[in-house]
Prior knowledge:
Layout: H1 10-22, E1 35-38, H2 44-54, E2 61-64, H3 79-89, E3 97-100, H4 106-111, H5 127-134, H6 137-153, H7 167-178, H8 188-191
Parallel strand pairs: 1-2, 2-3
Helix pairs in contact: 1-6, 1-7, 2-3
Amino acid sequence: MSQGPTGLPQDILEDARALFDFNQLHHELRPCPVGIGLGSHDLGVADVTAALFHQGIFPLIVFTGANAPTSRKRFPGGEAVHYRQRAIELGVPPEAILVEPSATNTRENFELSRKLDVLCASDRRSLDEYIGGIGDRHFVINMIVGDTQRVMEYPKLGHAVVQDVPGPIEAAFERLIAAGFTDRLLSTAELTR
Length: 193
């Protein structure tokens, strides 16, 4: 079986790339009052948020996030706290950053920051570049599969708006689950809340 540059079989890499590209929002950026950096396992959230701040997209940043099993080792002080530190290293003035340190999932990120305007932006790196930056291809694909499941399931739970998920994306999602990328799937209890 052919392997891509990440050492993964080509079919796995193609399915992961399909889900990765699907989860890139490609919103047209416009000025807004505040940028919200959602907690995750990736310090790149702070990098992208700081870059948008420096582009003048927003004058205020809210970093939101406590810890999750996937981020506790990377960010022992909490996701939002580490994002703030990184943004300051990147030249964002401390007074332009607010920290919401309690959210433990995307729903809480927005609920705890709900009075602020929201505009979604995503990192423009390719999947291969992203995997290279994180350094763990299986971890990244597990995260992408979990994120894609949330896009499909959260609207049913009232946590998000419905998004169109094209058939090829659903098929890639199912193939990646069948290939064993299930670490970040929602539990049965989470799907019935």
